[in-house]
Amino acid sequence: MKNYSITTLLKNMLPLSDLFKKSWQLAIGKSENNILRLQTSSSQLLAIFFIFTSNWLLTSFSFAQPTILYNNGAQFYTGPSSIVRVNGTFKNVNPGANSNVFEQDGTMTIATSTTSGMDGTVILDVLSTLKGNGTYNVEKDWYNSATFIADNSTVELYGDLQEYIGGSSVTTFNDLILSGTGINNNKKKTLLISAKIGSNGTLTINDRELETLLDTMYVLNPSPTCVTNVPDSGFVSGSFNTSGSGYLSRVTNTATAYFFPTGASAPQIRYRPVILTPASGNTNIYNVRLGNYNASLDNFNTNNYVDSNLCALNLAFYHQITRSSGTDNVDIEISYDPLADGNWDGMANWNLSIPLVWNSMGAVSPTSIPPSYSGVKKSSWTNFTNSPYILSRLSPSKPIISCPASVCANSPGNIFYVTGNDTSYAWISPAGTTITSGFDSDTVTIDWSTLPGLVSVSSISALGCMSIPDSCYVTLSGSQVQAQFSSETLENHYYNFTDLSTGGATEWVWDFGDGQTSNLQDPSHIYLACGSQKICLTASIDACADTSCTDMVVNELAIIPNVFSPDGDGINDIFYINNICLEGYKLEIYNRWGMKVFESNVGGWDGYTAAGKKADAGTYYYIFKGISIISSKDYSTKGSVTLVRNK
Questions:
Q1: Is 403 helix (H, G, I), strand (E, B) or coil?
Q2: Which of 75, 198, 453, 643 has its CA 20 to 30 A from that of 8?
Q3: Phi, psi (5° rounding) for residue 118?
Q4: Tens-place pLDDT, residues 130-168
Q5: Which domains does the chain have, with CATH numbers?
């Protein structure tokens, strides 16, 4: 860029009217110490300074040394294609009653000096006016204590050191761009007074931090897309004070999602945006900030949540959300990082219904928030009385327990179960009892002791929160017997069973394993089958019962009787040798003269001869053959049997 002194500027001007030359002389005044001072006096004509892009006047205007472009009441105009660079400070003031309008339609860069480090700051002061559609590239600060008319202009704060927006006047920007490469505090563009983005303007945060402190950045453009940032790195931060906090404020007029890129750099960098979706296209104003620490530090005590629906609050951060204008309900979506913050399934509001405590906002739904955050969404929220909002974990619903009204003392295997929507449960049983199975499931088995007591159960959510317990008081219905018995083999398939139960049993039910049962205390039983049999005794008194079982092997061959009486009375009518579990079975009967009177491969002798006549009473001889299919033992034998006829 070519540098011009004030004298060179005047010498290279094309001939102008004397009046115009006089105006230049009045306007410039003096230029000592690298100060371009534009001024007027009440006794002279108004000074007017024009910069155009043309062959006969400047295409650029700059100083090699640190400078102040000082407009002390003159009118100043730069054309749409003009370029003005100030290595120092641009100061626009109006010391008197004259009209002072600096109209800037070109590109103006206010940079810090490379030789002295002089500020690259814009200062608007003393009733002056700055307007136009131009671009302002500001390396340092913006102080406005006068009038700034944004028109269609763009202000870019591009410095690599912390920059401030201050002054006594609220600046309404059209397009505000934050840029630079500074890190830590030098990443910040800091408000010392509230500022605004106009109704057609944009806020481009890029990867910078717009630090509002206790002031607010008001975005008056209702377009959902007028605020942009680099996710994770660019955000709006704000501080807290009981008299007011720093917010990002947005005007809405559509039932569309509005993005609030809230974050903070202290005590650690955290980016946790919020999405608000109004219920209609009516005009509303919503304001959001992130409190990047335990809400207790702002007197919103995170230990205070008596609401039974809450089991935990997020201690790392919270948000403040207000509605300063309008009446629309809104869907609130608050983000979190599962890896850094854990998982959350609820949302709570401070002071909602119970004073000075956190209250659950009820059911929420999971959501996702760009670029890669999880979140919870509260739909159609109506109450904006209190601004603090916090992520929470919800207690699951109370389960419903089902249990016997009474159990037996010392009884095992008592079953208790619940109905509920969760998959995990926590059971508590009285001292002396033992939960033998189920533990964290919806059904448990409890071995009881000698005393009554309370059984309770709570639901456990996927996030580890426990519900209010449900419980039942269990009484004793009587003493518990302990079933025991012994068995005695009489002959082959003939058995005696003896009850040895304790506890004063008054009723017995025997199951012999072959489909036969008995209610006697000490029964006998004949097995017509062989092999393993499971014998069970259930002994009981009143409603209390116990069962004991044992396995027993029944031999293949039953006792061979030595007498039978085939008289048709149904008792001992057949001479029978059990052939179950035997192969090669054969029974032959001979009279005392050695004549065969009966032969069979399947059954016993009914006392009739092969000719179908009744055999006479007396002694007969048998030959039996049979081999065990279980042990291959040969049970073949021979002997005598007496036939008795009673009628």
A1: coil
A2: 75
A3: -65, 145
A4: 999 999 999 999 999 999 999 999 999 999 999 999 999
A5: 400-478 (2.60.40.10), 485-554 (2.60.40.10), 563-643 (2.60.40)
